[in-house]
Amino acid sequence: MATFLYRLGRTAFRRRWLVTLLWAVVLGGVGLGAAKAPAAGDDGTSFMPGIEAQKAFDLIGERFPGSDANGADARIVFIAPHGEKVTADHNRAAIDDLVSTAAEGAQVDSAVSPFTANAVSKDASTAYATIDYKVKADDLTDASKDGLEKAIEEARASGLTVEVGGTALASQPAAGGSAEAIGIVLAAVVLLITFGSLAAAGLPLLTAIIGVGVSMCAILALGSALGLSMTTGTLASMLGLAVGIDYALFVVSRYREERANGHDPREAAGLAVGTAGSAVVFAGLTVIIALAGLSVVGVPMLTKMGLCAAGAVAIGVLVALTLVPALLGMWPNAVLSRKVRKAGKRGGNVGHHSESADNGGTRWARFVMRRPVAVLLLGVAGLGALALPATQLEMGMPGAEAKPTSTTERRAYDALADGFGAGFNGPLTIVADVKGTADPKAAATTIAEQIKDTHGVVSVTPPQLNEAGDTALFSAVPATGPNDEATKDIVQTIRAERPGLESDTGATFEVTGSTAMNIDVAQALQDALVPYLAVIVLLSLLLLLVVFRSVLVPVKAALGFLLSVLASLGAVVAVFQWGWGAELLGVEQTGPIMSLMPIFLVGIVFGLAMDYEVFLVARMREAYVHGERSGQAVVSGFRHSARVVVAAAVIMMAVFSGFIGSGESMIKTIGFGLAVAVLFDAFVVRMALVPAVLALLGDKAWWLPRWLDRALPRVDVEGAALTPQAPSASVGPEEHAQEPARTP
After folding, report:
1. Cβ of 180: how many Cβ atoms within 10 Å?
2. Contact indicator for 86, 127 with CB cutoff of 8 Å
3. Residue 126 in 3-state DSSP?
4. pLDDT digits (tens, 9 = 90+) for 469-506
5. DSSP 630-648
6. Burial category of 534 from C-beta neighbours within 10 Å (exposed 0-12, middle 13-18, buried 19 and up)
7. Distances in Å between the alpha carbon of 500 and those of 62, 180, 504, 508?
8. Residue 112 pairs with which residues in a beta bridge?
9. How far is CA 336 from CA 227, 342, 553, 636, in A?
10. pTM, whole model, 2 decimals?
11. 462 contacts: CB under 8 Å, gap ≥ 6
12. Per-residue b/e over 489-514, b at no fewer than 16 CB within 10 Å?
């Protein structure tokens, strides 16, 4: 692989104008496709096939063909001024006017007044009207939205407080924007400090932006055909930007190093792509596999987000391997530091600047290796303590209650909870299959009465039969909120009563609705978390076994990954579930963690952890196979890689932290979780625990049984094939100990 990439780097450098033109054509082509493509439509009603709530939802669509559960809706909440009632004549007139005006909309299916639907609170301080539309929220015209908003403003002018929930006027999270801008600015500062050159700092940013541009335009172009949402694109842009900058950063850094070793620009580009590029390919592959592996969880939306993000990472790898050396070919000396360029202008050689002098990385490595036990115990104890909150992880699907109080959806949610009870915002929908019973209506009524008597259920609506008379539908309102643990117990209790009711009535029923759906999804994902984590850890062991040709290095890497991911999950629980420091991050409502978030965190952190492991330890392995002793190889690895790994980690943290400001709860949580995960994994696990463990293991760290050495494929990530004088990459500690030490 190293030889192939070496040739690719040299070719891209030599054919720089052609390579750059090809990428420009690709970007222009997908950009044109995105501009011409129709808006993304709905990707279907199936969120997670196989769970009870989804089966019941599908049954409703089958047995009640006239109802479109995906049609947009608006729940308009009216709160009377203090001391007044919504039933007062002037308030009632304002409400009736709004409902009448809304009913005239061309896309409106029905508009129900609170006074005809008994939707007035007991103290008459609050009421709500329901507006149902014939089309989905994405298909609502501006005229429909403007008409509803105008009617709402007129009602507010009468003195009523009017808030709007539902999907019709819900604010949509924007993909891109300030989050990426903040990340790019912070990344530029870090790159400038790291390289001391505007060109060297700008090149990774430029190529990363081009890569993200290609990815996002491709997602927009395919959005209609594949049902890709803006949230899907947000994750792809987040990861594409972060890894795009990092992968280009590693190639540019290695290019500067090879130039300092005296190589001409074209040869330096080839060596940079052959060595650092090999690590980029492998690191990118781990991220892609982890993201694509999300498809096994069984959630279509999760699958789409994972595959889109994996595609963005793949494009980032291709850009780093081709466009980066092409741009280096256009400005071969511009990315060098000012000191080196000045030396060249004075007639000196840009190469042969000392790369063996001590720097911060070597000093830190020697510090750790002098006291490995203390560093190891302190790091493990610290991450273990941070991981403790993860044992209390509660998963759910926060809705309007997780939005900022500045949004009308959140205020409508709070007003309904105050006026009608906490459970009103999360009613349970019961669908009873009464096909084949002697008296379908009586069977449905019996089921409804039994559920009404369930502890924790405050009310049940009368069952409504479909036209065929074989299915009944009704709602049950719990006493507690949608994300309360007590509501989960109520759902489980109702389902536990099913066998007895089926025996008595001959009918069966299932529980669905947004609350039951969220409960079922959270449970299914929680059940999938540990197996997925186990698969990821096993995968990391196998991949690192192939790369480093060592048994203990992969085990150490996998255990470090477990520590960092559990510590980051603990931090997420502490902030977003327990509320520690939540106000500093703009989290106004704490509660269960978004069900999809832990699965995302595990998959993405795995990929990022392997990135740092490969980039750091590959240089140690390279020094080791070139003849250095194990301890000195660790120091050499830090001399060459520590500074760039730190820069890469800070850039990752900057990009992910930018998304903490998102108004979308899931994006905010993922941004925070990934930022702290990079902090823990890069600075504690890879920069502290790795050298401590390698110091304790010595030559045993690189031990590999001979039979396994013969069985494993050789990928040559460290680029041994590019250095003829290097000993075999499969050298073991016994042979290595007999060889004289030599620097590469």
Report:
1. 21
2. yes
3. strand
4. 899 999 999 999 888 889 999 999 999 999 998 888 88
5. HHHHHHHHHHHHHHHHHHH
6. exposed
7. 26, 56, 6, 10
8. 130
9. 45, 10, 34, 22
10. 0.78
11. 448, 474
12. ebbeebeeeeeebeeebebbbbbbbb
Distances (CA, A) of 40 to 124, 137, 246: 42, 12, 31
Q: What 3-state class would DSSP assign to 129?
A: strand
Contact between 615 and 644 (Cβ < 8 Å): yes
In contact, 168 and 107? CB cutoff 8 Å: no
Please give the structure tokens belonging to residue 335.
């990315």
- How far apart are the C-alpha atoms of 674 and 113, rounded to whole Å? 46
- Other CB atoms within 10 Å distance of the CB of residue 739: 10
pLDDT at site 683: 94
Count of alpha carbons within 13 angstroms of residue 58, beta-carbon side: 11
Instruction: Spell out the SS3 assignment of 588-619.
Output: CCCCCEECHHHHHHHHHHHHHHHHHHHHHHHH
H-helix or E-strand containing 422? none
CB 364 within 8 A of CB 371: no
Contact (CB, 8 A) for 57 and 471: no
- CB 364, CB 271: distance < 8 Å: no
- Find the Cα–Cα–Cα–Cα dihedral 685, 533, 615, 707, rounded to 10°: 110
> Quick check: helix, strand or coil at residue 390?
helix
d(CA 133, CA 168): 8
Place of tokens 């030889």: 3
Neighbouring-strand partners of residue 79: 126, 161
The mean pLDDT value for 418-425 works out to 91
